[in-house]
Amino acid sequence: MNVVVIGLGSMGKRRIRLIRELYPDIQVFGIDKRKDRCIETVKKFAVQCFSDFNLVTFKVDCVFVCTSPLTHNNIIREALKHKTHVFTELNLVDDGYIENMKLAKAMKVKLFLSSTFLYRDEIKYIKEKVTDSKRWNYIYHIGQYLPNWHPWESYKDFFLGEKKTNGCREILAIELPWIISVFGNVVDYRSLSDKITTLDIDYDDNFMIQLKHENGSKGCLVVDVVSPYAVRNLEIYSEHEYISWNGTPESLLEYNKSLNKLNNVKLLEQPEHIDGYETFIVENAYKNEIKAFFDAVLNDKDCIYGFEKDKDTLSLIDILGA
């Protein structure tokens, strides 16, 4: 199988590393218009790289789209026209969604959308605990100062600095799929936002959002690109039950009623963390969704999150104002 990773930034290189680790027999290639990224990728992974998809002369079985979101639509469409299975990172806009879903079906290939948190063991555990038999409340703060997201480059040169694909929008696109999966569809909402930093951006940099779900569960969601300390703090509670999580595998805690104390919930024997990333970014979930993609391609398994659901998620984000 030949797999081409398009876009050799931090995420593209992560995908190459993990594909080679999980599937050493797969031939992996890279594409990026930036020569420096191609050179770095060749040095790190010893894979052949191209500056353009048109230079690829062999049969491509799968494409991983890891470029900036506003470029995804055209790349996905071209790949589908070549009867190529597609794995795409977050799109953040729904350009071409309906057309590409129809094209994938016509070409009988898989169109797979990344939603990494749905593959985290902590989220799977939380989903098992949060049942529809009762109503739950949750308080969730996710924030990190925008210039610290990619400290090796200016935020003005990064897609998160643009209004259409801004940092708060990306956070919501990452978090809302698992929140809706756990608590149910959103039936009511309130959103309060403004700009409190001096960053050179033309969008609100912090949001305080209230959500009500179809079974009556409620949430307070605080999203920002303001907090100088990277934070992911979650509290979920109902009568006699309480769960907290700070984003790391070691921080998942659950209330023990009989002992009246919080117990640590250990789910991963060896969580994988790469130096240079925040402690709540672990590689295990990225591995899990890559496995799910190839399971869909090789064994015709269904995707747990796709373009149809994401279109609804992006519509909600639009309504919330991000």
Strand and helix map with partners:
Layout: E1 2-6, H1 10-22, E2 27-31, H2 35-45, E3 49-50, E4 62-65, H3 72-81, E5 85-88, H4 97-107, E6 111-113, H5 121-129, E7 137-143, H6 167-183, E8 186-194, E9 206-213, E10 218-224, E11 231-238, E12 241-245, E13 253-256, E14 261-264, H7 283-299, H8 307-320
Parallel strand pairs: 1-2, 1-4, 2-3, 4-5, 5-6, 7-10
Antiparallel strand pairs: 7-11, 8-9, 9-10, 11-12, 12-13, 13-14
Helix pairs in contact: 1-7, 3-4, 5-6, 6-8
Folded structure, characterized:
The protein is of the alpha/beta class. The protein folds into two domains: 2-113, NAD(P)-binding Rossmann-like Domain (Rossmann fold); 117-280 and 306-320, Dihydrodipicolinate Reductase, domain 2, CATH 3.30.360.10. It is 32% helix and 23% strand. The chain contains eight helices and 14 strands. An eight-stranded mixed sheet has the order 8-9-10-7-11-12-13-14, covered by helices on one side. Strands 3-2-1-4-5-6 form a six-stranded parallel sheet, with helices on both faces. Helix 3 (72-81) links the parallel strand 4 (62-65) and strand 5 (85-88). The two termini are 39 Å apart.
Summed up, what is this model?
This protein is 32% helix and 23% strand.
Describe the global form.
Answer: globular
**What's the CATH architecture name of the largest domain?**
2-Layer Sandwich
> Average pLDDT value?
93
Work out the strand percent: 15-25%
What summary fits the major beta sheet? 8 strands, mixed
